[in-house]
Amino acid sequence: MTIFIPTPLRxxxxxxxxxxxxxxxxxxxxxxxxxxxxxxRKHIFTPDGKLRAFVNLYLNDEDVRYLPAKDATEVKxxxxxxxxxxxxxxx
Amino acid sequence: xxxxxxxSAVYAxxxxxxxxxxxxxxxxxxxxxxxxEGWSIQSAVRAGNTRTDSAHNRYQISDIELLKIERTxxxxxxxxxxxxxxxPDHPAQxxxxxxxxxxxxxxxxxxxxxxxxxxxxTNSFFLAGAGEEEKHFEPQQIVIGx
Lengths: 91, 146
Prior knowledge:
The complex is a heterodimer.
Chain A: E1 2-4, E2 18-20, H1 26-36, H2 41-44, E3 55-59, E4 62-63, E5 80-85, E6 87-89
Parallel strand pairs in A: 1-5
Antiparallel strand pairs in A: 1-2, 3-4, 3-5
Chain B: E1 3-6, H1 8-21, E2 27-35, E3 38-47, E4 59-61, H2 63-75, E5 79-88, H3 96-100, E6 108-115, E7 118-128, E8 136-144
Parallel strand pairs in B: 1-3, 1-8, 5-6
Antiparallel strand pairs in B: 2-3, 2-5, 6-7, 7-8
């Protein structure tokens, strides 16, 4: 599958904007990604291993948080996983 | 002070957007390319403000819209280089809310003050720091050029 890396995290993937890997589930894909690029982990997960609140994961067009199996959802080689930090603000 | 380069069309577009949504905040993404000199913004993509409950002083881009914007950027050979929004009847300075909700480290956050419906100052702030715990905004010079 392909994991798309957002601009702020590319400094931790050697400048790559996409990473190809083989995994059975979303969770396994993220584990592989952060095993390959160790500095990435703290930007995606809290110290106790939970996905940071502002980090959104989309498996193709679906928000992983709302999938029935969440990050245990099985993935196919043709799937894409997008990491999307949120954006908001105001005066 | 670091700088961010905007085409004149992008500069006009983000200011115009702020005038059109007044008295509500506008928001959108900035697409561009990065070089040793910093970001060069080639395109501004308008986004809807999902904070309809408090649109005069808050903005939020939906995650699914952001996903689509990122796909657009990739298809055009660009990256998301930052975001823009307006401050209706308020200075073009970042707020604590802006900082708390900013997570795109290494990107530019451009704010336009809109006074009585007219775009006034436009300022850019670079989100610096090695992580969430030490992130901070640094003023950035806006350079207009094609």
